[in-house]
Sequence to fold (283 residues):
Amino acid sequence: MVVSRRIVLTGPGIAWIMALLVIPCALLLVNSFFERGIYGGIDYIFTFENYARAIDPLYGEIFWNSARVAGITTLISLALGYPAAYCIALSPKRRQMALLILVMLPLWSNYLIRTYAWMVLLNGEGLINRSLIGLGLIEAPLPLLYNDFAIITGLTYAYVPFMILALFSSISKLAPELREASTDLGASPLMTFWRVTFPLTLPGIAAGCVFVFVLSIGNFVTPDLLGGGKRTMIGNLIYDQFLTARDWPFGSAIAAIVIFIMMALLTLQAVLINRRDRDEKTV
Fold:
């Protein structure tokens, strides 16, 4: 009876994950070992050529640029998200939900609309350049659009809420007595933060960084719109292979590599957190 109840409760969720995540990823992996058809699509001839092409220096540079942009986005999101999450976690309980809703509010609007809004803000005649010119700080519009700055700005804006939520979950679990004990022992607020709060929130930092990095490296809308197509990232390369070049096997191979990288990061995060928990229990 208990087993059947578990099946009823977990079955729909498992079926949903299998149908929309596991099976599509498995098909993607299988297709990556076939050849491209003459007129596009898939020719079912087994080959490793797609993975051999993927390690070509040309595509290696795209991987590196994507990782660099995603890494910078992650660091900026951490720098912006940690103070915000810290303030929310230390605010009165009755205000925390309202503050978290404000953090999540941008996620309730369409991602494409938010990206177009940044195009309006960053262009030469946008609000930012007009304001700077009006204040006399600059004489000519700054090149804020169609470059790495615009891409990183758009990605940071889009994914910093995920960083804040992950950090808030970690910071809010800290016992206030730990900070109080550190203060009673003569530690300054800054020392308390670096020696107590920050180390204990490393799992939240790791989770937030993985979320932002993984989402950023696979994004193709922001580089295409805010980058003006001048900066090709992994997401754009995969998109082009499927919808422009119609080279589905090669696109599947690149997508499979990205999935493997994501899984490796998530596995590393889980291993480090589990090891840290075991060390704490041992102590």
Summary: Residues 60-282 form a domain with the MetI-like fold fold (CATH 1.10.3720.10). The chain has a mean pLDDT of 89. The longest strand covers residues 35-36. Residues 248-282 form the longest helix (35 residues).
